[in-house]
Structures are given as C-alpha cells and as structure tokens.
Amino acid sequence: MAAQRKLRMGMVGGGPGAFIGPVHRLAAEMDGKIQMVAGAFSQSAERSREAGERFGIDPARAYADYRQMIEAERKRPDPIDFIVITTPNHLHLPIAQAALEAGIPVMSDKPATSNYAEAQALEAAVAKSGLPYGLTHTYAGYALVREGRHLCASGNLGKIRKVAVEYFQGWMSKPIENTGHKQAAWRADPAQNGQGGAIGDIGTHAFHLLEYISGLQVTEINATLRSVVEGRRLDDDCNAFVRLSNGAAGTLACSQVAAGELNEMRIRIYGETASIDWRQQDPNRLIVKRLEGPEEIHHAGTPYLGHDALAVMRVPPGHPEGYLEAFAVLYSEFADALRAWQQGNANPLPPTLPGIVAGVRGMRFIDRVIESNRKQSWVAF
Amino acid sequence: MAAQRKLRMGMVGGGPGAFIGPVHRLAAEMDGKIQMVAGAFSQSAERSREAGERFGIDPARAYADYRQMIEAERKRPDPIDFIVITTPNHLHLPIAQAALEAGIPVMSDKPATSNYAEAQALEAAVAKSGLPYGLTHTYAGYALVREGRHLCASGNLGKIRKVAVEYFQGWMSKPIENTGHKQAAWRADPAQNGQGGAIGDIGTHAFHLLEYISGLQVTEINATLRSVVEGRRLDDDCNAFVRLSNGAAGTLACSQVAAGELNEMRIRIYGETASIDWRQQDPNRLIVKRLEGPEEIHHAGTPYLGHDALAVMRVPPGHPEGYLEAFAVLYSEFADALRAWQQGNANPLPPTLPGIVAGVRGMRFIDRVIESNRKQSWVAF
Amino acid sequence: MAAQRKLRMGMVGGGPGAFIGPVHRLAAEMDGKIQMVAGAFSQSAERSREAGERFGIDPARAYADYRQMIEAERKRPDPIDFIVITTPNHLHLPIAQAALEAGIPVMSDKPATSNYAEAQALEAAVAKSGLPYGLTHTYAGYALVREGRHLCASGNLGKIRKVAVEYFQGWMSKPIENTGHKQAAWRADPAQNGQGGAIGDIGTHAFHLLEYISGLQVTEINATLRSVVEGRRLDDDCNAFVRLSNGAAGTLACSQVAAGELNEMRIRIYGETASIDWRQQDPNRLIVKRLEGPEEIHHAGTPYLGHDALAVMRVPPGHPEGYLEAFAVLYSEFADALRAWQQGNANPLPPTLPGIVAGVRGMRFIDRVIESNRKQSWVAF
Amino acid sequence: MAAQRKLRMGMVGGGPGAFIGPVHRLAAEMDGKIQMVAGAFSQSAERSREAGERFGIDPARAYADYRQMIEAERKRPDPIDFIVITTPNHLHLPIAQAALEAGIPVMSDKPATSNYAEAQALEAAVAKSGLPYGLTHTYAGYALVREGRHLCASGNLGKIRKVAVEYFQGWMSKPIENTGHKQAAWRADPAQNGQGGAIGDIGTHAFHLLEYISGLQVTEINATLRSVVEGRRLDDDCNAFVRLSNGAAGTLACSQVAAGELNEMRIRIYGETASIDWRQQDPNRLIVKRLEGPEEIHHAGTPYLGHDALAVMRVPPGHPEGYLEAFAVLYSEFADALRAWQQGNANPLPPTLPGIVAGVRGMRFIDRVIESNRKQSWVAF
Phi first, then psi: what are they for B268, rounded to 5°? Predict the structure, then answer.
C-alpha cells in the first residue's frame, strides 16, 4: 500500500469574524485525509489574503472570489479536489452550481440553499454533474446518533410510535442583530438567510436528525412560528406537530429565544417496547429506556454498540468526543467517497453521509413550515 | 395554646386494589393535623369493611355507600370534618354535591369531575354552599414548584415568553386495560373516566402546573390527540400548542404510550432573561438558567429560597422529600383553611392550594382539547 | 381479620428547636401502625408540655422526665408499647436502660450510645431484657439501598473487591457552634456528643451503610481525623482506609466542612464483574455499571427489583419517595416486629432492620477511628 | 504578517496497534500549527514504514530507530522542529536525552520516565540543554480544568481545606495482560512500565491534576496499594491520603479494577466558602457549590469564565469539546512556545503547560506511593 496524498480542499467563505470556516478547516483536516490548500475566504481581496495567511495558505491561492478560485485552480497541476461552501445561505446555490459546472465536487454547510426552489435547482445540478455532493449536518456525525439510527432500523425499539425533537438556544433573546453581532445580523436578514430564521438555522438540524435517526419521513406538518423579539424580521421560535411515514407522530420545536439554553438539541424516539433519548450537549451517552427492565446508558466507544457507531470513534470509551469530531466524521466519509469516485465509483456516498437529498428535504421543511404557519393548519410535506 | 384535636376525615373510594386511596390517607395524616376516621371505601359493604379494617377504622364507620356515610356521620357527636373523594372520575360530582348539600367540606382527587358541564355545576354548588373545596393537584405541593411560581411572579425571569410542559408515561404502551389491570381499565373506559384519556389523567396535571407556576392563563389551544394502542377508546397521546394570557406561547404534551418513561413530568418556562426547569422525578432541584451567568441549581430547603418554598419543607436541605410530602402539603394547607373556616373565616383557602377554580379550568382544558382535536385547529379557551 | 389497634409510642427528646423529634413522630405514624401518645420532650416541664400540645398529645402524657414517663405509663390501662429516644447522644444509654429494665421495648436514634463501652453495656442490657431494640439508621430504609444489598448478597456483582463510601456536608464550615446554632452546639460538645464529631454524626451512617449493603464487615481501619475549623473540639473531617472480611478494601470519608455539600452520602461497591452506585440525594435510582454491557439505572418501584426493595415501596415507580419514607420503613418493620414479639415471637427483628448489633458496630467504629488516628496507623477492628 | 510555516514534528512510537500515537498526531495537527513529517514508529523497519504510510509520511522519513531519525533529520534542510515520545515508559528517558543532546526540543507522553531517578536525570538534561520540554498531561488542556485552576488561584473558594481526587477504570478487572491485550501487557510489566501500575498509568494524572488545579503541593502521603487481580505484578488499585502545602488534606484514589467504570476521573476541591467539582467524562461543565447561594454549573465557552478557560475554546458554548481538543490545547501552547524559543525567548513555556517540573513531581509521586505502601505509613513527599 502506497501512501495516499491528502485531498486538497478549497474553501468559500470563512473569512475574518466567521465562526464556521475555521471549524470546517479543522474538521476537514482532523483525520489526516484532507488539507485545505486554497480559499476565497472573503469578497474583499485583502481580507481573503489575511484569512489565507492565518490559515497558512499559499498567498497565491487566497482568492478574492470563488469564480476566480475555480478558474485558477483548474489550471494548476495540483488543483483542489473539492470545494467547501461556508458562506451565508443565499450564496450556497450559485457557488455550488459554479463548482459543479466546473467539475468540482462540493461539500456544503447547511442549509443547502436559501429556499426550496433553489434546492430543487441544486438537486438537478448535482444529478446532471454526477459529482459527489455532501452536506455537513454535523450532528449526523456523532457516534451515538448513529447508534440511535441503528437501534431504530434494527427494530430494537419495536415499531416507532412517537417522536419529540427540540433544539433550543437563547442567544438571540435580545435584538443583537441590531447591535453589531455579525452572526446574528445575517441570520436575521431574509436577503442573506432566506425565509427561515430559527427554523432555517437550527430547525433544519432538528428535522434532519429526526429523519436521519428514525429512518422515517415527515409526511405532514402543522407549525406555528413567532418572532418573539420585537422588530425581528424572521422567526425566532417554532413549534410544530409532525406525522411520519409509518403512522407515527410527534413534535419538533426550535427556538433562539429560550433564555439560558446553549445548544439544547435533544431527540427522543418512542417505539412499542423501548425508546431512545439523546442530547447534543451530552453526546457520548445514549439513553435507552425499555418498557421492561432497567434504563440503560450506552456509552460511546463501548463494544456493545453497533458497527456504525464504533466505526467513527477515535478514542477509547470514557474519553469524550465532541462537536468537532462529529464534524470530522462527515469529512472523513466524504474523503473516502471522493477517493472512490476519483477511482471510478459512480455512487460513492454512504447512506450515513447527508447529501443533496437531505438538503432538499431540509429546504422543503422550511417551505412547509412557513406555509403551515401561514395557513395555521396542517399541510402535506 | 391548647392542643388542637385532629380534623376528622371520611374517605369515599380507596377500597381494595386502589392505589390512590392509601396515598390520600397517608398524606392527609402526615403532618398530624388530620385523622381518617370513616370511609365508604367500596360499593361492596364487605369490601368497604375490609378496607376499613386495614386502615384501622372503627367498623361502625366503614360504610357501604357515601350517602350512608354522610347521613350517619351527621348524627354522631364526633362527625367527620370533611370528606375526600378518591373514586373514578364519573362519581366525583354526585359525591361532592351530596357532601356540600350536607354542609360537609370536600377535598377531591383530580380531575374535579368527568366533564366540563359537570365542573360548572360543581362550581355552582361550591359557591352556593360557601364551603371549602380543595383539589389534590399533587404537584402543586412540591416546594420547588412553589419556588418556580415565586420566581415567575416576582419577575425574576423577566416577562414570560415561552413554555414547554410535558408529562410522559409508558405504562399503557400495551392494551393492558383488556387484561385485568384495574387502574388501566377504568381509565380507558369513557363511562368511568370521562372523555379524556391521557389528557384527563395526566394532561390536566401538566395543564394545571403550567398555569399554577407561570401565573398565566391559557387563552387558545391547538391540540392533536391519538389513540396509539389499537382498540383503545380514549386518547393515550396528546400534543398541543398553547397561547397564554400575556402573549407567550408554547407546548403541552402528554402520553401514556411513551415506552420506558415512568412519570416524566417536566416544565420549562422561559422569560426574557432567564428560565426555569423542573422535573417531577427530580423534585428537590429547580434549575434556573440565565441569559447571563452560570446555570443555577436551587436545592429544596436552602435559605436562598422564597417563603412559599421554605414554608412547606419538613427536613433540612439534602434530605429528599417526595410525592407523598407534596401531597401532604395540600392536606396541611386544607386543614389550616378548614380550621379557619370553622372559626368563621369565609374565604380561608390560600392561593397556593388548588380549588374549584383550578378544577373548572382543568375540565375546560379537556373540553377544549377534544374540540380542537375535532376541528384540527386552534380554539379559544 | 380484626382491625388492629395502633401501637403506642412515647418519645424522649424532640422538644422545641429539635429537628429529629418531629421527623421520628412523622415517620413512626406514616404507615398507620403507630401513634405517638406520650413524651418526655424536654427536661423543662413547661417546654415538654408545649411540645406535647404541638404534637396533639394528651397533656397528662407530656412528661418532664423520661423516668416519670416510664413510671406513669406503666400504671395506665393503655400504656406505651415502646419508647423512642431522640435526645443528644450522652443520654441514649441511661434512657434505654431505664426503659428496658421497665420492660419497655426501645427504638433509638443513632448512634446507639456516646461511646463503645456504653454500647457494650447496652448490648448486655438488651440481651438481658429480651426486648426488641431498633436503631434508626435511616438510610437502611431506602428501597434501593435494599436493592443494592440484595445485588451484593445474590452475587450479581461477583466477589466484592472494592468499596468507596462518603458522606460530605458543608454546614459546619464556619464555627457555628459558637453562635447559637443549637444543632451544631451539642454536636460540637464532647460531653453531649461523645468523642466522635463528624464521625459520630455522619461517619456512623456511612459505616453502617457500607456493612449493611455489602454484607461484609470492616476488619481493619486506618483513619485520619482533622478539626478543620479553628477551635473546634471534635473532628469535622475524616478520611479512612478500610479492609473488609472477604479481603476487599476501600475508603470511607466523611466531612462537615465540605463547603457547598448538603447531604452527599454516596456509596459505591465494586465486584469482579459489576458495581453499584447510590446517592442519598438521588435515592430513587440505583446505578449498576457492568464490566460488559450498558450502564443500568434501576428505578425504585419497578418490577425488575428484588423482593426487599419492592416490599417497602408505597407509590408507583416514577413518584419519588424520600428521607421520611425511608425513616418510616424502619418504623414499619419495628412495628411488625413488636407486634410479633407481643404475640410471643422471641426473635422478631428482621435482618433488614438495624438493631443493637449495628449499634455496637457503630460505636466500635468511632472507637477504632479515634484509636487509629491517635496511632496514625492501621488498627484491627 | 507573513504566513507561518507549520512546525515539523517527528514521532517516536505510535506504530501498529498503538492507541496513543494517532491521538498525538491528531492533537498536534488540530490547530494548524504543527505537521507530523517524520517518525520512528516501530523498532521494526517494516512496521515503521507501514505506519508512516498510514500517516501519509514521506517513506524516506519513516525510520526504524529514533537515533536514526535524529541523525537523518539533522542533515535535512527541513528538519523536524521537535520530537514527540509516545513509547512505553522505559524508553522515555533515553529518547528524550538523545533528542536534547541533539538540540531537538521534546514533547513527551506521560509519565516523564519510568522512575524517579530517571526523572531527575531528565530534569538535569533538560536544564543543561536549555530546550523546551513539554509533557502531555492531557487533562490540563480542558478549558474547565483551567477555570477551576483560576477559581482556586483567585481565592474564589476561600482558603483550600480539602481535596478529593479519583481516577477509576474497570478495564483491567480481569487478567487481560495474559491474553494478548497489548495495551494491558506492557502496562502490567514492570520492565516496560516502571514500578507503578495503576498509579503510574492514571494515578499520575490524578496527582498532576490535583496540584495543577489547586496550585498546592503534596507534602506528605500515606498510600496503600493492591494488586487485586491474582498474579498481577503491579498495583491495580491505590488509595492514598495526602497533606498539602497550605495545610489542607484529602484523598487520592485510582483503580483499574473498578468494574464498570470507563475513565471516571473526578476532582473536588473544597475551600472555606465554596467548592469545585469536575469530571473528565462530563468535561464541559464545572460545578461550583457555595456555602451560601445556589449550586452553579459553569459551562465551557461562556463569557463569565476567566481568560485561561476562554483562551482555549474553539467552538461556541453548548458545542461540546472533548479529549482530543484538550490534548490539542497542550500542543498549541507548545507550538507557540517553540516558535517563541526559535525566536530567542529563553523561557517560553507558559505556566499552564505541564513540563519537566510536573514530570519530576509525577515520578516522585510514584516513588513516594510505593515507599509509603511499603512502610504502611505516612511519608514526606
């Protein structure tokens, strides 16, 4: 076996002040399969160059524009193998399209696009290109999320009857978008963020996790949105009922005005004979409660877990892994898939890695929530 | 100060196989203010007498019928001071009416009656009688529920914006009402239990706690009911959106088919600057999360709590109290009120003790949930 | 079956300002088997009468002195069936002796006496009398303590190898015995409390629980004592190594200067293949960790528990019981034993109820700890 | 500002089957400051080359021997900037000495050496060389460990009185060193591991954390060791009393036969007015309990933390970080120090980064524990 070169990544977005860009860099490189070598980090040439320096990127590969990066990289002998998109949401589609048209695979931050029509367009572009497209629904990378998915799929819980998923944050409890908070500002601006506020930013995570773990699809939804903070233009609080493809039902809630909560994402799935309970802030434990017998805590890394959970652990049980490791799991899977694709595998993406289908579902979710809220009634999904 | 005689209690219900009767006896007597001296424990004279013996009741005061008890007790020199009703729901109204008409104060297990019309009738009967009427919404007796109520009322959380209350059990995950489980059987029978299944049995608790702690009223509700277990005649799972009198909103959920849950009642209330989080299964801790500053755990019995919480503790902090102590708090307050009433105080019930108003609200809740579910839309409360 | 009269209890101690007296009254009466009818609540006749009034005791039976109570009650047609001792420790022996000599069974607060020699004298007195003697090592009454005991005895953990028990409080972090705190004052006074400070007050609880749950005996101990608060005359902090009768070993620690702790008593017992972990402040859950397989949480009241745990529950699983219920379990067992004894059973005390043997062990513990600390080395137990 | 090249790392150890080698690689590279470019991964040339390939190392830089690596790298235009030692303990000293003599800075896995005499020799070698030497006491890299250290140093707890630190694992509950478990085999072999078993492997972590967080030094120790598993040649269980430089005292315990525990490292430090409580398995929360006022949970990443904790966070509060991030913090600090040293700073190591002093303390700890156990008494530290 010959040493494999690292895959070369080019980033769009992630310039000064960005939170998620450095996280993508770190996660992409964690498992030693990928190296970030280029980037269009900012629309300002100077700020892009500065960001590149901070990242240790060759100055010649710190571009002022993603189109420029695509063009320039194509001409290099060592071009980027894929791009990662970490910009505000309204730029996701044009960047992805440009990359795909140029034959460059795409890893994208979520949500896939800024609305459902765009997501459909992107789905078509991905299909047409035949290129790998991955979506960083981070929480899908946690080992115990995969264990939960495995328990659902294997029938360990019996037929699924009921779900309860929530994602509560408190950081937008005040109108911080008006006082210079960059992360809040673009999230509160429909032009940059799309029509979904909390539902786009975190509701899509909750929605994805629900379908990802349960293996079911939402078929109907009844949602009610609020903009609790006065003057806010997008929703900051959402409660929804959902019905699922197997007849189960439940709730999905998200909020960015739940004062005192950090990233309280929790999912509970109840089957006929048992249920699972997982919280992102305590990610190395999966609680399994059974109709009969003691409550169980399944710890990450332990040998009694299924293959999917064990495959993504890096350290022994009792050594906590976290958000960055979950993120890196997705990059690691994407890297493997990308290499397989480079070697001729036409459908390399594993079912555990969120892709364009999940992306379209997520945008559909936002669309349906807004429609349901407008009608104040159930809508088909 | 002269030694006070104990108040004399007569029970209706609580015969062989009952769970809640012995709990009422124990709770009523815990603080040394009340003694159970009579009972119509069962509609079978023999079983009533047996129950009386087990309770150590004078055989002459173990009656076969509540009417008989009322009549006989009136003629005694040492009659009962009040009755407690612990029967299935459909009997609550006639028993309470008979007692009130006979001039006997009433303590009642919840729900107050088996439907809303009955609750209105009972409210009229209570008003007409001028007698004390208490309702054992047990959870209102927990010290930290009262601390939460105090924090809401005192503005400690800022204006309340959002609530999330749930009561999940799993014990009816199978059709046990068909296999000889007495507790399940009457709860699953509309004739005995009224029109509400899970919503009547535990949803009313969640609803009461929501209004009790927040100090707000539900003004609109949008509920969706299911009978998850095949063949079950009443609901066993409910999800609802609520809107509150101050403009806040949130969710209320209850289920008796949440496999693996025991009595998972949890309430979270989010204000502008802080939130509270309380779970019945961990009742001696109230979690307070603030927009700024560390998360706080307020322990029962500690001197930093408010008066209402400290007033109901029996043991020092760090010694857990539980369900029976919460129950007994209500009886202790009822006993004090009853004595005040006997001494001429026309309005003796403290605001911390649930009474007929809470009872009517609870039945209204069931009525509105069923109506909302029928319409699959919001209804006014 | 004829209705059984309640057993009549006379209390010594428990006057104004006492914490533990009212707890004994409440616990004794909780299960409807016992009624407190008399008391020598204080050495002041007036204060005893006041306490009696508050307890609702016939004024004629509120005595100024335990000797007086013993004498007077013997002459009544309805004398007390037993006395309970809730005084400071130095009075435990003379009171118990007087009762036993008068043919009156004894329930005693712990520790049994104020030193080991006294305990031996008491053991002889109990033996000579042939009367039931119970000791309220409260924590032995928790359902899940009994489940832990059952798991140890049944071999569920494999051979026991290691124990870790601790009881940490913080309430004596300042010299409150000098500033009018009555509970602290007598505990800090060797004349009233005996030679053990924290080790007597709470260390004996930890020690008892260790032997009670594990089923093993301490055979050697190496303890180190401190009086952390300047000027304190008794120990307020203790760490000890212990060796056990089966070759296992471990630690026992207690402190009353662990700032911020309430009643943090925790016991962990490690066997070859599994371990148990129980905390008094979370008493309705017993954690079982296995060498193989998920961690388990055993909930109080659930059907998968053993007989001893289920026998002492009063409410369904998910409804927390607490300190008072644990206390009441001991009284309930004592009442049953007392009645059996009254009916001629010479050895009625069940193995689950702590008695004089536990009392002697506890005083031996204090003696050995002090000796070990003096020598700064291991001592035989 | 010009882009800085990454520092070049050469690893000794970390070949096939090693757990800790890949962890070092990942942690070193996480923050983009370091790249592993060379290694003597195994004493077998072939296995070293294989490991190098897996790591993506230039085959020419996968050496069969650390001496060979040192020599070869010195001749390169792009030599390694430092080496990291991840071998079994008995090789730590010779490798470190060889590197230091060759002018190459060292990062070492803990413990520093295999006994105290070696540690003193290493200390001298480090002093003589004037080179940076870092020690990966991983847990020192957790943000909330640093917050605890800050709270102690700033007097937030009052004067420290009492400590309790433990590190319990269960994975060596059976004699797995005899059945092909590589990690267990060298740890159980005195020739490879030194004289300390559990005390060397995990006790040193507990000891380091105790001194690191409290800011105090152990001055006396009384330890008792056991080899619980029959035939095991080194200790697998240790309990110790400690006395600290400010007069405080407490306990230190470690075990590898605590069946069911994963990596239960917990440290509690009690001051006059407050205490802290931190668990490695729940690393993003620091619990602060106060003599007065509610218990507090300090969450990683929140703005109310001190500088040292905030300086090492990579993601917003509510997104858990874990073991690898803690590890990487040490590498990041080492990288910064190394660069400062390369630029002429003679004493670049920050006080937060464990170095040779901590290394010597750790080996002294093992030495003193063994001596105390031999004497079964207190020994000076």
Answer: -125, 135
